[in-house]
Amino acid sequence: MNETGFLLEVEKITKSFTHSDDSLIRVLNGVSFRLQPGEKVALTGANGSGKTTLLRIIQGQLQQDSGHIFFLGRPKSSKFPHERAKQIGSVSQNSYKAVASDLTVEEVLAIASRRQDSLRLKKVSSDSFFSELERISPEIAQFVSARRKSVTNTLSGGQRQLVALAAALLGQPRVLLLDEHLSSLDDEYQSWADAAIDKIVALDKAGCVVVSHDKKWINGFSDRVMRIEKGTLHIRKEYS
Prior knowledge:
By secondary structure, the chain is of the alpha/beta class. The chain has helices at residues 51-59, 81-84, 95-99, 105-112, 126-136, 138-146, 157-169, 187-203, 215-221, and strands at 8-18, 24-35, 40-44, 66-71, 74-75, 88-91, 175-179, 207-211, 224-229, 232-236.
């Protein structure tokens, strides 16, 4: 049971990297924030400020130097990325590259829909996850259904990015981590993505942390803005 009421708690995270001359650069310096159910938070900052580093630490892809990560009130600092993936749906700026494989669209989504399952192999009914996508976004569901047998590496970059987003939304994620997820999408696909994320956050009480440099979009989409400056996190009402 989650006693704190927060989906995600990031507590005093620090992270440094070593330069080629063996000097250290502190990227994150005691970063802390909390994500509530039904909340959309924008994470901003200059290139190289540590935005992607922070998201990778939350996902378990990088180990922080110090600090703690909690999901649903429980510590997750020692968990593997595949364990954290049960709670997290993620899309990066380059997710379209990862999706470019010999798998079909249907196979990619079948794997994503098993977010809460064990690692044991089992057959998944495509009807179940296409129905779930239909609930989240009729437009995205129609898009992927029309391409369900297409091998993903035959799709365009924008199409693969939309498939990556569809995969992130399946399996009832509690936290969405979106790193420049709109960068490869045209205006129509972006509108579908915004509506789908809004629905999951509002109806399923998920939470969303999104990285973007689009000030107008961030101010219209997010509930609050966090900016990383010199390793420190600052909370703002809007992206200015």
